[in-house]
TrEMBL record:
Protein known as: Biotin-independent malonate decarboxylase subunit beta
Catalytic class of the enzyme: lyase
Record bears the keyword Magnesium: no
Residue ranges of every copy of the CoA carboxyltransferase N-terminal domain listed in the record: 1-194
Superkingdom of origin organism: Bacteria
EC number: 4.1.1.88
A Pfam family the protein falls into: Carboxyl_trans
Keyword tags: Lyase, Transferase
Entry annotated with the keyword Transferase: yes
GO molecular function: lyase activity
């Protein structure tokens, strides 16, 4: 009965919008949104291409507290342009990270949580989006010197492209079963390598390689969570309390390069083989 009650009382994180996700993490009454939709700071490039722009450019920036700790949350709305990063949305996230780093220099220990539901750069904004992602990555590296920068990828959009590199730079990555994390999306891989290599319509196959459970089992993520808002908040708080002292994955590049040098590209990858590979059990 207790399990049933827990299920009935749970709140799916993946079903919430970006603004609701930010609010679900922060202490009640502490959320203050920066550059909210009423500021009308939206992409100047989409309308010229016949695309309806969104007033917040699909990015919600909120300052508040988690268990009394100062936190900034950047939440990407996956339902707007696939969560793609353009000039404005990217600048909002980069600016928030830079302000959090400045807070720390001024004695305010502000941490950051990035809610990443994104396919990467917005193709309609091309180089501007890439430049914004580069600024986000620089902001993560700067801030993590002071406080944890936690990436939460809940699904179903996942996290791909340049923003997957941003996730890899974070102090910690938390995933749900519904989440996916990878450099190139399934359609891109299929387009470049062929359907025999990667069938983008084969959802079980895709999740078996890039889904949350697999990425966690391979050591590419630090937490594997249920799709529950309270559980995700509790895990983020646990990381804040005990961030650990290990090197970030981005500083373990030597080990990963050694692993990659042993990849046999003639063999079709499968979930079991990939797990064994990352554990050093096979070439």
């Amino acid at each position: 009965m207790s399990d049933l009650n827990a299920l009935l009382n749970s709140c799916s994180f993946t079903e919430l919008g970006a603004r609701q996700r930010a609010a679900a993490l922060l202490d009640p009454g502490s959320m203050r949104e920066l550059l909210d939709p009423f500021e009308r700071v939206k992409s100047p490039w989409l309308e010229a291409q016949g695309i309806v722009a969104q007033a917040d450019d699909g990015v919600v920036i909120a300052k508040g507290q988690m268990a009394g700790r100062p936190v900034v949350v950047a939440a990407i709305e996956g339902n707007f342009q696939g969560g793609s990063m353009g000039e404005v949305g990217g600048a909002k996230i980069a600016g928030a990270l830079e302000l959090a780093a400045e807070d720390n220099r001024n004695g305010i220990p502000t941490a950051a949580v990035l809610l990443l539901e994104t396919g990467g750069v917005r193709l309609q904004e091309a180089n501007l989006g890439l430049a914004a992602i580069a600024e986000i990555q620089a902001g993560i590296v700067e801030l993590r010197q002071y406080q944890p920068v936690i990436a939460v990828i809940a699904g179903p959009v996942g996290c791909f492209g340049g923003m997957s590199i941003a996730a890899g730079l974070c102090s910690h990555i938390l995933l749900t079963r519904e989440a996916r994390l990878g450099l190139n999306g399934p359609q891109v891989i299929e387009q470049e390598a062929g359907i025999e290599e990667y069938d983008s319509r084969n959802r079980p196959f895709i999740w078996s390689l890039t889904g949350g459970e697999q990425r966690h089992a391979c050591g590419l993520a630090d937490g594997y969570l249920a799709d529950d808002a309270d559980a995700i908040r509790e895990q983020v708080l646990a990381v804040f309390e005990a961030p650990g002292e290990g090197l970030p994955r981005s500083r373990q590049h030597g080990r990963f390069l050694q692993l990659l040098a042993r990849v046999d590209t003639a063999q079709q990858a499968d979930a079991e083989g990939v797990r064994a590979f990352y554990k050093g059990e096979q070439a």
